[in-house]
């Protein structure tokens, strides 16, 4: 038999059943509430899409609902997915950009994107819009957007200006963890702090070496993706997303989703109004806080700037506008206050951009609210496009939506004095001042050096300047002194200073009279500058100009004579030769620039033996030497050809002429002898381009016979070849000025000539004119073409 049950262990069966039913009811009601929240978020997205249709279609709510249903059925998607697409097209915000990138990435991978991506992001946004606290925001983000990515918990931190963090929303953690982490003091190294310091998204792994954070006591091998929650350049908090196990490095599309959700959190932290409904506007009238900040800046004795954020059309922070400069402001580059006030910080001080520079510090203070203080910070500036560095103490603080920037330049007077002394030394300038009442004269150290005097010597009065100058400059100095002393107008004069050490220097003195309130002469201030090097440079430059003008005149005369000589012997075109069934046409085009008069030559003549001599050559060099060398070789060839020798023998003799009987002439040449009876052309070449034979509409080069430049060797042998010409054949002899290009090799240039030569023409002259007209050569050289046609 069982004994009596102790009083403390007794629980009526009815009570136990009642508690179980109550617990089940509470659990069921909680699930229903969560489901209702999810449904409400989805309905909010659909209602927002309906509103967009009402505005765009000009219809009523019922018609918009029917239109949405019809469009969803036609597209084969759910009402929620279509609503998300409509909102994306209308909003064109960060969420739209992320969704569009995901779709593009999926298209590139040849597989459709997850249909819930846009829906998840927009549904999460709807949940944030309907939330009345950050806790509900965290729940909505996890439920709609992050749980499908495998996340199990979300934490939202609020960042204070003192660098502390407050947990304002947490889901997926125990109540004990949320209470323990409700506040993180400044300086504690946590995962959220790491994202704030880097001002960007970071991925951290928990463990012995990882940073501390909420939930690390229960999940020791998990991973976190932490990103700052910013709006308009200000970081208001941090979004921390938790995974229960280690994550591999995540693709950029996942990180962009989380950054878009962090932006929703930022707008909630700032205003409690969702991003799609919030319009960021800067008030045209300054707020009371801004007026107080301007008053504070004006009460400071250090230079102060009040900066306002400058954002682009999409609300992103790009720069800071100088809203106000105080009365004690001194520009780093010496500009007036008006040139700085109202400008953009990066436009006014472009050299302050870059990591660790002033702009980076201002941006960090505005984003985090953490004040910045620095002793002896280097501030770069531009003075007349010359870089200048200034050492100053800097303080930066954020006040609401504005930034106060202070600096105190260290030892400004000494710095400016050193800068002035340095400039005077480089410019060889010395300053002076003469007191008209007392006769006291003040010189700086540079002026004593210019006059060749020791620093203990007495300065030279301006009125005694002529006694220390060359006697020929006395009249000019007298006019200068009368202008300054009598007419009391600024003046300057250049003179030769005769120093005591026997050195003569060319000096320019500038003086300006200073008048008192009654108009009387009080003092004279001015400067001496040593312009000796400038004077001698001008003298040398003048002599050089005269010499250059003489040289140019001689060169022009030589070019004119060379051109006349060339034109007298080598006219651009000669009458065609028509004899023995052979037609010969010639074209010559001189260089486009007269100073490049060259030594290209050609000849076509019937010899006493009834053979026809044709030749083309090119002398190295330009001007008189090239023209006279051309005359020598051309006339020598005519005389040698009368002996009846063959082409190879003629080139051998011509080489002796070039090597021994001229002033070191080097030339290329190709020549041929045509026998009218046999229609055979015997030819030879000396370093020249081979002739082109056009037969039956096809163009080809003759074989590359052996033969060196004329004049290169004392004695040499030349190879001779022959070609049997047929009726309607055409043979072209030419110089390199027809084909050579600086950007192409010679083979490509010859290929162009062959292709162009195959073009059908009506006459031999027309073929030569066509080649000259369409020549692509760019060497600015002479061009000769001899065309031989067989009837």
UniProtKB/TrEMBL annotation:
Keywords: Coiled coil, Hydrolase, Transcription, Transcription regulation
InterPro entries: ANTAR, Bact_Sigma-Reg, GAF-like_dom_sf, PAS-assoc_C, PAS-like_dom_sf, PPM-type-like_dom_sf, PPM-type_phosphatase-like_dom, WH-like_DNA-bd_sf
ANTAR domain segment(s): 26-87
Residues that span the membrane, as ranges: none
One Pfam entry name: SpoIIE
Coiled-coil segments on the chain, per record: 541-568
Residues covered by the PAC domain: 491-543
Superkingdom of this protein's organism: Bacteria
GO molecular function annotations of the record: phosphatase activity; RNA binding
PANTHER family: STAGE II SPORULATION PROTEIN E, STAGE II SPORULATION PROTEIN E-RELATED
Name under which the protein is recorded: Serine phosphatase RsbU (Regulator of sigma subunit)
Biological source species: Saccharothrix saharensis
């Amino acid at each position: 038999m069982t004994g009596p049950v102790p009083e403390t262990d007794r629980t009526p069966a009815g009570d136990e059943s009642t508690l179980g039913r109550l617990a089940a009811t509470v659990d069921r009601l909680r699930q229903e509430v969560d489901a209702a929240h999810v449904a409400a978020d989805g309905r909010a997205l659909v209602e927002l899409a309906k509103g967009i249709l009402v505005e765009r279609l000009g219809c009523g709510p019922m018609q918009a609902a029917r239109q949405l249903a019809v469009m969803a059925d036609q597209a084969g998607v759910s009402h929620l997915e279509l609503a998300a697409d409509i909102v994306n097209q209308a909003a064109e915000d960060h969420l739209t950009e992320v969704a569009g990138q995901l779709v593009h990435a999926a298209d590139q991978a040849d597989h459709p994107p997850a249909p819930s991506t846009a829906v998840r992001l927009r549904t999460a946004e709807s949940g944030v819009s309907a939330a009345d606290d950050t806790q509900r925001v965290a729940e909505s983000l996890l439920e709609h957007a992050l749980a499908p990515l495998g996340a199990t918990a979300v934490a939202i931190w609020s960042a204070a200006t003192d660098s502390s963090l407050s947990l304002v929303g947490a889901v997926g953690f125990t109540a004990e963890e949320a209470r323990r982490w409700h506040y993180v003091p400044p300086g504690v190294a946590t995962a959220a702090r790491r994202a704030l310091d880097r001002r960007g998204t970071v991925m951290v792994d928990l463990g012995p070496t990882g940073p501390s954070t909420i939930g690390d006591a229960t999940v020791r091998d998990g991973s976190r993706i932490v990103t700052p929650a910013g709006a308009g350049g200000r970081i208001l908090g941090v979004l921390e997303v938790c995974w229960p196990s280690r994550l591999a490095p995540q693709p950029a599309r996942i990180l962009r989703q989380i950054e878009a959700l962090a932006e929703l959190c930022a707008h909630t932290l700032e205003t409690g109004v969702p991003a799609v409904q919030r319009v960021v506007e800067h008030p045209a009238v300054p707020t009371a806080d801004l007026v107080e900040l301007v008053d504070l800046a004006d009460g400071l004795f250090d230079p102060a700037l009040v900066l306002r954020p400058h954002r682009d059309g999409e609300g992103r922070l790009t720069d800071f506008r100088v809203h106000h400069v105080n009365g004690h402001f001194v520009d780093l580059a010496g500009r007036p206050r008006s040139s700085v006030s109202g400008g953009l910080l990066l436009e006014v001080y472009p050299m302050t951009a870059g990591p660790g520079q002033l702009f980076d510090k201002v941006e960090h203070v505005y984003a985090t609210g953490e004040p910045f203080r620095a002793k002896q910070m280097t501030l770069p500036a531009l003075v007349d496009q010359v870089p200048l560095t200034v050492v100053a103490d800097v303080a930066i603080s954020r006040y609401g939506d504005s930034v106060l920037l202070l600096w105190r330049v260290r030892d400004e007077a000494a710095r400016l004095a050193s800068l002035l002394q340095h400039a005077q030394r480089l410019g060889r300038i010395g300053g002076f001042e003469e007191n008209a009442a007392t006769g006291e004269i003040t010189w700086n150290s540079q002026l004593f050096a210019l006059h060749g005097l020791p620093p203990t010597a007495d300065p030279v009065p301006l009125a005694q300047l002529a006694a220390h100058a060359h006697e020929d400059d006395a009249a000019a100095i007298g006019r200068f002194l009368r202008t300054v002393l009598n007419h009391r107008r600024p003046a300057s004069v250049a003179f030769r200073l005769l120093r005591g050490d026997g050195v003569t220097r060319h000096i320019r003195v500038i003086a300006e009279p200073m008048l008192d309130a009654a108009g009387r002469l009080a003092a004279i201030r001015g400067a001496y500058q040593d312009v000796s090097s400038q004077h001698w440079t001008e003298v040398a430059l003048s002599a050089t100009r005269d010499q250059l003008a003489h040289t140019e005149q001689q060169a022009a005369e030589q070019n004119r004579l060379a051109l006349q000589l060339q034109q007298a012997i080598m006219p651009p075109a000669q009458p065609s030769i028509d004899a023995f069934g052979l037609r010969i046409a010639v074209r010559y085009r001189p260089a486009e620039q007269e100073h490049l008069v060259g030594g290209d030559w050609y000849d076509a003549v019937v010899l006493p033996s009834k053979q026809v001599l044709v030749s083309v050559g090119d002398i190295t060099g330009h001007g008189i030497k090239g023209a006279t060398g051309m005359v020598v070789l051309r006339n020598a060839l005519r005389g040698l050809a009368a002996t009846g020798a063959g082409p190879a023998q003629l080139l051998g003799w011509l080489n002796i002429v070039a090597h021994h009987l001229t002033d070191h002439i080097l030339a290329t040449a190709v020549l041929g002898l045509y026998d009218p009876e046999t229609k055979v052309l015997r030819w030879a070449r000396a370093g020249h381009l081979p002739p082109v034979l056009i037969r039956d509409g096809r163009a080809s080069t003759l074989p590359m016979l052996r033969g060196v430049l004329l004049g290169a060797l004392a004695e040499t042998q030349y190879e001779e070849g022959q070609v049997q010409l047929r009726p309607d054949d055409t043979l072209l002899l030419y110089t390199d000025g027809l084909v050579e290009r600086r950007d192409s090799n010679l083979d490509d240039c010859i290929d162009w000539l062959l292709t162009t030569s195959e073009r059908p023409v009506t006459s031999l002259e027309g073929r030569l004119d066509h080649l000259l007209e369409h020549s692509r050569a760019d060497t600015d050289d002479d061009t000769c073409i001899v065309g031989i046609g067989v009837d």
